[in-house]
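Milestone 3.1: sequence recovery, worked example.
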């Protein structure tokens, strides 16, 4: 399996719980007519969540340079709400015809790498246990929106797992649309 390398602009992101698979299905629609499909297990989400929180903290100079832990939490909450307010959760995920360069079946993710690109933006690499996967460069809106989508999908899962972002309010019990999509 190849890694999807083409530089594309992410158009939509959807995360939803599949009871049949007992996994989260992440769909990533890109501007070049491509869709990437990924399975996230409970174990994987438990590993991914603290890394996303750390990326969110590191991505903000205001948070990174704050010495007081309580102030850091409060700033993270403020930045999370500001970023999420810029995302559009109202538009349903476009199920139009797209090519699937990583295959029709979703990749079962097993490895995670995080870091920063040359401009200091957070980078998240999602890979199956063996083989290559995808790498996402995240801006503040995308990073915090991914957190919100994961929180909502996990809440539906019944996994007895609560994803908390320090200093942020829990997401509403019901999102405006059932598909939980970000554009």
């Amino acid at each position: 399996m190849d890694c999807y390398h083409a530089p594309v602009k992410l158009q939509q992101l959807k995360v939803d719980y599949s009871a049949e698979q007992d996994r989260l299905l992440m769909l990533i629609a890109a501007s070049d007519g491509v869709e990437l499909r990924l399975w996230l297990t409970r174990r994987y989400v438990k590993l991914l969540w603290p890394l996303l929180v750390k990326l969110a903290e590191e991505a903000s100079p205001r948070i990174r340079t704050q010495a007081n832990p309580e102030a850091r939490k409060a700033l993270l909450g403020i930045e999370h709400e500001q970023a999420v307010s810029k995302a559009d959760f109202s538009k349903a995920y476009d199920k139009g015809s797209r090519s699937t360069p990583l295959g029709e079946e979703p990749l079962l993710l097993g490895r995670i790498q995080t870091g920063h690109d040359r401009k200091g933006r957070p980078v998240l690499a999602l890979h199956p246990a063996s083989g290559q996967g995808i790498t996402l460069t995240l801006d503040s809106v995308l990073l915090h929106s991914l957190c919100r989508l994961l929180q909502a999908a996990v809440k539906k899962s019944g996994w007895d797992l609560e994803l908390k972002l320090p200093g942020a309010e829990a997401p509403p019990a019901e999102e405006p649309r059932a598909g939980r999509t970000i554009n």
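The chain is about 30% helix and 25% strand. Residues 66 and 102 are 41 Å apart (CA to CA).
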